[in-house]
Every structure is written in structure tokens, then in C-alpha cells.
Amino acid sequence: MNDPASAPDAIHGLRIEWSRILLPVVTLALGILAWDLVVRVKGIPPFILPSPGLVAATLVSDWPLLWNSLLVTLDTTFYALALALAGGVGLAILFNQSRLIEHSLYPYAVILQVTPVVAVAPLLLIYLPQQAAVLACAWIVAFFPILANTTLGLNSVDRNLVDLFEIYGASRIKVLFRLKLPAALPYLLGGLRIAGGLSLVGAVVAEIAAGSAGAGSGLAYRIAESAYRLNIARMFAALILLSITGIAIFLALSLVSHLLLRRWHESAIAGEP
Amino acid sequence: MGAGLNPGDNVFSGMLSTNASTATTPLVTLDSVAKRFANGTLALDGFDLAIRNGEFVSLLGPSGCGKSTALRLIAGLGEPSRGSISWSGAQHRVRRSNRPEIGFVFQEPTLMPWATVFHNVMLPLELEGVERKAAVHRAARALERVGLASFRDSYPRELSGGMKMRVSIARALVTDPPLLLMDEPFAALDEITRFKLNNDLLELWRSVGHTVIFVTHSVFESVYLSSRIVVMTPRPGRVFTELAVDAPYPRDESFRTSAEYARHCRIASEALSRAMAENRKS
Predict the structure, then answer these.
(1) A51-268 — its CATH code?
(2) Chain A: nearest CA to B48, how far in angstroms?
(3) Do B198 and B59 sit in the same domain of this protein?
């Protein structure tokens, strides 16, 4: 009754896809062209604004250095995201099971979230080894969306389904794993998508804070270091890599979300009649 | 108490009347039950009701008269504030407080959207720890009974409203409960689908032989389905009167258009309007 995607719909869908890919690409090309023109016409020196061509050349020539830095940053980001997932979901479950724990801890989770991580990073760098401090920063910004969304999801379970489980005498554990967690999954995945980007932000912020202390080798550190050396082209190259990384993380998590929800959740179901 | 003879009994005498007393001993008795909610609302007060084995009883009343509350108390969802609910559960597989196993159908289908039709129907068996092979077999049979065997791998969102409700009924019946509680299960469906499900439900009831308590605010539905109608007053709900619907089963569309059906509907309608007026006096 819902199935076969009729031909006109398929074509319609395809047209939307094309415009969504083509238009941003055209915009990007125009932007780069304008950038190049401005640099050429005004004769701006590369230590103020390098041309796009120079940035691309730097990206290629500095690739081994930038690649290694990217790996360091990615490493931090993924560890932070994994810990944020575990911590966020774990805390959400704990809060859901115990009002006492929720009321005792939730305000501090909020405080941790609203305090700017840039301000916290230098302190963490004093008290923790550098790697741990960077990781902690990334975790602090990334865990909250997962905690908040998962909590919302766990509390949004269909009341009738809760009653049904009670009628059949289901244990708390069964209610949690068979009912509450599956019901919370779409919310959790929404939080995870936000957390993916934020863990990169957290890693970058912490690296820059650490970088000024003179030790580190992540991409953000490269940016800080290149700024001191007026190697503006390399700054741009590193920045581009960071953007691509952020996009890749978002796309990967969106894909995970889609694969997990595509059979049953409205958010993941492609437009159909 | 309504004196309607019990048509389910002769069909299922083999299953139910292993001792002669089942026909007379009520399956469940509610004795001056009251329920006050935490917000102060008094939903039920002085509610008396006895349900016998094999009956199809409708609780008929206006919205908010405490029908659903009564049903939930019978299901063990919440405790009465006053009064008692007692079971003669000796002949059943017994759960908490002597309560037999119960099937419950909500107003909405209340299916788990992340699980297939089959896994939704399996759920009660899994929660009760039924061995997997037996559970698979029973779930398949329950789906067959509601005519949805070929939709076992579909997800709820792929089904129509009526089909979802069938899945919900299959889930309620999968544990073979002696008592089926239904809380306005067809209220949200269109009339054609509702009539069809009414017929299917009667057929299921006659072939399975369980006791049914059916909450509805529709006079027509209650007369069509039940062997006895319990008319309730508005909040706080109590039993205003009981009506026996002595038309014989099986009932079908010809009953729906018969003079007898119209007569019963008129009696029930009048009882309902008097029940509504009753509460305004007090």
C-alpha cells in the first residue's frame, strides 16, 4: 500500500537532489573566483590573504604534516564522542531510574554545559595531563546534547505501552531495554548528531588553548602555530581540513541514524505518497 | 444483576465448566470500589460489579464517567482507594493478587513502532518468559486468528488503523487470557471498519471462549456486542442499571437491522439518559 515509488516521484526526487548538490557547488565556485579576483586585482600579499591557488598548493605540499595533525584531532574527537555517548546515555538512564540522582546532578550538568569551554580549558590544562585535558574539554561540550535528548526520549514513552508492560509484570530492566531505550533511540541519535560536531569544536578549542602553552600537534595547534609564523596559507589549509572533517562526521552520523531508523521512524522515511 | 443467559457457556462448556460452580461464581467482583486520583478527582464511588465466566459485558457511559478507570483497576493498573476487587481465580493460571492472566486492548493500537507486527504480538510471551519456540508458534497462531498472518514482517506504520487494531487484539489474545479488557478499542476507527471489527470480535469471542469487558460510549456498539450492558452514571461513576441483551448469538448484520436490535438500543439509550440525569439531581 505504501510501496512502489512511482516514476514521476522518482524523477521529482532526483531533480531535488541535483539542485541540492549543484547549487552549493556553483556558489562555492563563484566564491573562490571572487576571492581569487580580489587577491589579484588588489595585489594583496600572501601573508595577509593568500590566493585560493596558494592555499590548494599548501594543502598538497604540507599534506604529510597536516594529515598527521588531522589524525591527532580526529583521535581526540572520536574518543570524546564515544565517551560523550557512554556518559550521556549512562547519565540519562541513571536520571530516569532515580529521581534523587536526577535532582542532585542535573543542575551541574547544565552548569557544565553553559559555562564556555574556552574559559574552562586553561584550568583543565593546569590540572590534567595535556591529552586528558583536551579530551575532557571535548567531552564536556559533547555529552550534554546526548544527555538532554536521551532524557527527553526516555520520558516520552507511550504511557499505554508502559501500562502494557506492567500488566505483563515486566521487570524494570525489561521496561528499560525493551521499551524505554528503543523509544528514546530517535532522540538519542538526534543528540548524537549534534554531539559529533561539538566534540570536534571541543577538541579544537582545547588544542588552541593547549597550543599556546607550546605543546601539541593537532590541526588546531597547526592553525595557532601558523598564525605566529604568518603562514596564512597553511592556516586556511588546516581550516579547510577541519571543515571537511566536521561535514564528514555529520554525514556519517546522519547515515547511522538513517540506517537505524529507516524502517520505523517518521524522520527517516523518505517522502512517499 | 442482569439475568441474560450466557451464550458463550454452551459452546465452551468443555473448556470452562470443569466444575459446576464456574457458571455461578463470578470471575471477578468489584465491591463498593472508589477511586480518587492524586489531583482530587473522584472517578468512581460505590461501584459494584460482578462478571461471570464467558460473559461479554459492556460498560456504557458518557466520556469521563470512570469506565476506563474501572477497567484499569480490574487490570491491576492502580489500586482502588476504597472497596475491593476479588477474583475466583482458582481455575486459572494465577498472577498477582489472585488475578488471572489478562489481555488489554487500549483505545489506540499502542504498538511498538520499532518492532514488526510479529514481534509486537510476541511481546507478552517474551515478557512472561515463554520459551521461544512455543512463543513463535503461539504468536503466529494469534496473527492467523485476526487474519494478519501475511503481515507478520510489516512495521506498524505500514498498516491501516483497522489492521493496527487487529494486531493489538492479537497481542492481547496471544497469552490465551481468560479475561479480555477492551477500552473503547474501536472509537477512533471509521464506521465500516468498526462494524467489521465488531463482527470479527464476536467471532473470536465465540471461538476462544474468554470473558470480555468492553468499555464504550456507543449505545449501538454495546447492544450489538454484549450479553449484558452496565450503564454508568457520570463522575463519580457507579452502576446506574444493568441491561440483559438476550438476543441470541451468533449476531451478524441482519441483527443490526432487526426490530429487536432497535428495541434494545432504545432501552439502553433511555437508561443512559436517565443515568445522566441521575447525577445532576445529586
Answers:
(1) 1.10.3720.10
(2) 23
(3) yes
